[in-house]
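I'll show an entry:

:::
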Amino acid sequence: DGNFLVSIDNVLVSKFTPGSKTASLVAGLGASTADGIQATSAQFSFLSGLATDTVGNIYVADRSRNCVRRIGVNGVMNTYAGTCGTSGAAVDNVAATSSFLYYPLNVFYHTATNSQYIVDTGNYRIRMDNVATNIITTVMGSTLGNTIGVAATSVALFAPNDVWVSPSGVIFVADRGNYRVVRANSPSALVTLFAG
């Protein structure tokens, strides 16, 4: 159904259709940051990550505004996680829009669990939000540092910038500041070094 691209100036989302040389605007180019508007009328601060779910919703990490926005299949944009315009410490087991993010760099959609994984870089954590319940939790990370061999939710990370989760739920995190990739089989499992 096409491929999505965050523009080089990080304020637009475009869709490219295979075999076509043209792109259509999906989001950006507007002046409003409000929820409930058409995404093409929206203004973003600095987009840095994008994911789509099985229904066709688009999730974008607006890192400078410290939130993740969702663009529905009807083109309407709403805040999905975080409090747009405000950074803060991670709060778990609450609605994602009642929690805070700090410089979220990326998002990854996990089909098997219908969950969004959010790279909450400034909080040194990977957060998981179940799309059906919209409850957010931490699945890896706790504070700034460099540790290994501890539970995923206790490990110290340094500027994580990407996450990938296998179909069976194994979590891989690019821990950029520590020049490594770490993995854990679950939030309670021990973190091991995968690369670096």
Summary: The two ends are 36 Å apart (CA to CA).
